[in-house]
Every structure is written in structure tokens, then in C-alpha cells.
Amino acid sequence: MIPTITIRPGPVPPYEQIRAQVEALINGGLLMAGHRLPPIRQLAADLGLATGTVARAYQELEAAGLVTTRRAAGTVVAARTAEPPADRRGPLTQAARAYTATALTLGADLDEALAAVRAAWPDPTG
Which residues neighbour 8 within 8 Å (Cβ) at sequence distance 6 or greater? Predict the structure, then answer.
């Protein structure tokens, strides 16, 4: 089971909303390596979408190396084998894009999105 995925009407296609939310869950550590994602048909039914929409999201996640799909095992979160890059700009940009997509699907504007980041940022004084 994965945390709730929400699809909102708007400019971001549903497959991209699914992809961005699952990517954010993986990158945020809420979905760990080996965690099994719901079958395409089940998630499509749960979200009221066509199976092709969910399949495209899963294909894009697989192309990004975030999940693997095997006939008997289904789709699972891929193990991270590489060390994190020393240059943080790439991963930060990727995470920012995923967060932006999620914020847009929720209807947030830039000020709301930045306020959410500030609120979530840990206080260095403890």
C-alpha cells in the first residue's frame, strides 16, 4: 500500500501527477527499496483513471530507475546502488520539479509552496 495519491483537474496530466507523487514518496523516504506498488489495474480503479494512464506513470518511473517491474513480483521501488552525487544541483532540481508538480496539482501558488517548504525546514537550533 502506498500513501494516498491525489489527482486534480488542471494543466498537469494525470500520469504526470502520479509519477511526480510516487517519485516524491520515494525520494522522501516514505517508499523504501523493495516496497511493492499497487497493480496498474488496482491503482487505475482506485483513482478512476484508465489503466494506460497509470501504466505510463509506471513506465516513466521505471525509465528514471526509480522502480522495477517483473511479471511475478509486480512493480517495486528500485534499490539505490549508487552513492549520492557530490553535486547536489541535479538531485535538488529533480526534487524541486517533483514538488512543484505536486504543489500545482494541489492548486498552490508560488508563495504557498515556498511557505510550505519554510515550514517543513528543520530548525537548526533544535
Answer: 17, 105, 106, 107
